Amino acid sequence: MTSRWIIFCSIIDNFGDIGVCWRLARQLANEHQRDVELWVDDWSALSGFLAAQIPGINNAPVFPEQQAITAAGVRIRHWHKPWQALPVTDQHIAGADVIIEAFGCELPASVKQAMRHVNTPVLWLNLEYLSAEAWVKECHGLPSPQNLSPLVKKFFFFPGFEQGTGGLLREATMISQHEQWQQEQQVLRQRLLQKAGLSEFLQADVLLVSLFSYDTPALASWLNALQEQTQKVVCFVPEGKSLAAVARCFSRDRLLPGEIARLGALTVVAMPFGSQTDYDQLLSLCDFNVVRGEDSFVRAQWAARPMLWHIYPQDDGVHLQKLEAFERLYLDGLNPDAAKAWQAFSNGWNQGEDCHEVWHHLRPQLSSLQSHARKWQKKLAAMPDLSANLVNFETLTKLSAHP
Ligand code: TRH
Question: Do 196 and 300 fall into the same domain?
């Protein structure tokens, strides 16, 4: 019988939490044939996100009045806050085979109460944020005792870059999809330029970059450096925080999707916030990608292109330790000049420094970074992905419950 999985997702900021949960839910339903229900608290943010993923969904009579919707094989339900405790709903959730609390969000108290009375085993997982830090391997899979019922077992589940962690989300066709896009890259890049209204670049030797970051003073200095290049640059900027910052650099109040701004060698194209698949393709076609947070950061690695990671800034500065941990893994095997240039750009950007000079040092290293990005992608892709690891974890815990 298909096992029943429930994912709880609290949308804190931006689209990272829902981006990861949506991807995971779809994969569990479509690749692992799980019966998946996704509970999301911010219904209006969810509706904006899904509108980009599934064109026309906002025209369906589901948002904002209704409380449930089925899309791409996943049942999505509204997590009201405060939780409206209903015994039927609480028992329905508590009796699932697997319950995932994504990114430290907490299950409603009445659901936990209902877990005291379950009569089938429940695997309860605290799915954490991605980190490359060494302790992740030690903490992944550790139990988190709850004493609700002997049938309820809770564990920590940590995504990660190394064997012994929970791995990274990667759809079964992801690598072959990128290979195909890159084989057809000439045609696809021309199509992208044409769609943006930039036919003058069709035959030109042009550097394509994408920018999806947070706001930082480093951004203006990078755009400045791009303007001075001899090679022309087209920078695609999806709607969001970086687009607002880019508009300021061009002394504009805002840039609307479809608009173009030019300065020196640089042409900026404002893009709509599209689907995750459209964005994957953009990452695949660009020569350099600035990405952020968690999900776009992982996607850039599957695209196997040189990239810069703008890590989600935290007040206490711990994000810089996380950045350093990633740099340690990522730079392994890269030639020292390229590694030094990449690290200077990465650190400068993430500390909000002037990145003008460091970009000019990095540019000659782009071809070394390109070969390295491909090796890194292959290394990561040799490991099982997060959804497969979750499904295996379910099987193993079931086996250990019934030796
Ligand atoms: O939106 P983010 O800044 O999310 C962050 C991080 O997850 C961070 O760890 C978390 O603490 C914070 O949110 C609350 O960046 P991220 O993770 O890249 O998520 C963006 C999502 O949007 C991702 O799933 C890709 C998707 N996306 C599209 O669907 N279409 C687009 O056009 C673009 C640019 C992105």
Answer: yes
Q: What are residue 352's DSSP bridge partners?
A: none
Long-range contacts of 180-186 (CB under 8 A, 24+ apart): 181/281, 181/284, 181/285, 182/284, 182/285, 182/304, 185/284, 185/285
Domain that holds residue 111: 4-166
Does the beta carbon of 330 lie inside 6 Å of ligand 1? no
Total structural domains within the chain = 2
CA angle 187, 193, 195 (to 5 degrees): 100
pTM value > 0.90: yes
Ligand 1 centroid–CA 85 distance in Å is 31
179 with 246, same domain: the answer is yes
Contact (CB, 8 A) for 296 and 304: no
User: 88 burial class (0-12, 13-18, 19+ CB within 10 angstroms)?
Assistant: exposed
Tokens, residue 83: 């939780």
Each residue of 245-294: pLDDT tens digit?
999 999 999 999 999 999 999 999 999 999 999 999 999 999 999 999 99
What is the CATH number for 10? 3.40.50
Q: Does 245 map to a domain? A: yes
| DSSP state letter for 323 | H
Contact 310, 327 (CB under 8 A): no
**Residues designated as active site:** 17, 294
What CATH number does residue 217 fall under?
3.40.50.2000
What pLDDT score was predicted for residue 58?
66
Q: Are 126 and 98 in contact (CB under 8 A)?
A: no
Both tokens of residue 395?
């099987």
Task: Kindly give the number of the ligand 1 atom that is closest to the alpha carbon of 17.
Answer: 7
